[in-house]
Design brief:
Length: about 300
């Protein structure tokens, strides 16, 4: 079954850029996920990992991790988000948004969804001009419907993979999350305007001013992107699921089942090379609970 939503190609930078602009970044914990440890860092046999996924393992076999989103404030383009976190309804009825099979994997405290956290900062959903989606997996796209006036930017391959999946959940997708009549724009990382940045071979400058760059880092999913955000003195890198944990980023155990392991390793190597070249950059892995606890509430330097 297809979807009604459509996406248009993004042919050039969005409006709102300013020469030499830098941004302010506020990490937001927008839910929690509970999966087998081997799902994130695969060290045991596949039987043990799949037994845990089916709920046939003790608590020590699981890891409770943050579901991140990021509020980014640009001086002239306005406020934007990187990913949406979990939908507010998950706090009371997870199955309504996630479906019965995925409902047990995620949790959300009342009032800790992204829209509630934005209101605490004096912002409403209508104040979010752009949402950058690293990819369309459940924990990154669950709350798309909360931002009907925003422009959503993601890679073309990710859009094609998610909308064309025969059994979406097997790929980590849920069509109801992204089948909305919002303004989707896709980036062609084989097209014009794509350039290297640091060790990342293919990046897109979202506002044409270097402040927000999407780096094509496929492998975890077919069209996964990381996001490089320029602070005044260094970059803040939303690595997303190129690496679930800092240990994995340092060469630790690989994930159980990336969509394409070869491409995942290439993307991981790009991230590792970036850290070596820019040791002062803040590179944030996708779901590391210990790393997440050490993050500041706001980055503006």
């Amino acid at each position: 079954m297809g979807i009604a939503a459509e996406a248009l190609p993004l042919d050039g930078p969005l409006d709102g850029g300013r020469e030499n602009a830098s941004v302010v970044v506020e990490p937001l914990e927008a839910g929690r996920a509970r999966f087998p440890r081997d799902f994130f860092e695969h060290e045991g046999g596949k039987l043990a990992a799949y037994s845990a996924l089916l709920g046939r393992a003790d608590d020590e076999a699981y890891l409770d991790v943050p579901v991140p989103a990021y509020l980014v404030r640009h001086p002239t383009a306005g406020a934007l988000l990187v990913d949406t976190g979990l939908h507010p309804s998950i706090a009371s009825d997870p199955s309504h948004n996630l479906g019965r099979r995925a409902a047990g994997w995620y949790s959300l405290e009342h009032g800790r969804d992204v829209t509630s956290q934005l209101r605490e900062r004096g912002l409403g959903p209508g104040d979010i001009e752009v949402v950058v989606l690293t990819h369309l997996h459940i924990d990154h796209a669950s709350a798309i419907s909360e931002f009907p006036e925003s422009t959503f930017v993601l890679s073309g391959p990710e859009w094609e993979a998610a909308t064309g999946a025969r059994i979406p959940l097997l790929g980590g997708y849920r069509r109801a999350h992204f089948d909305h009549a919002v303004d989707y724009r896709t980036v062609d990382f084989d097209g014009d305007g794509i350039e290297s940045y640091g060790s990342f071979g293919r990046t897109f400058d979202l506002f044409g001013d270097g402040s927000v760059r999407l780096a094509f880092t496929p492998g975890h999913s077919a069209g996964h992107c990381s996001v490089l955000l320029r602070l005044p003195r260094r970059d803040f890198v939303v690595l997303a699921d190129v690496s679930y944990t800092w240990r994995q980023l340092q060469g630790g155990p690989e994930p159980l089942r990336p969509q394409d392991r070869h491409n995942w390793r290439r993307s991981l190597h790009e991230a590792q090379a970036y850290i070596r070249a820019y040791p002062y950059a803040l590179v944030v892995p996708g779901h590391d609970p210990e790393f997440w606890q050490k993050l500041d509430a706001r980055y503006e330097k």
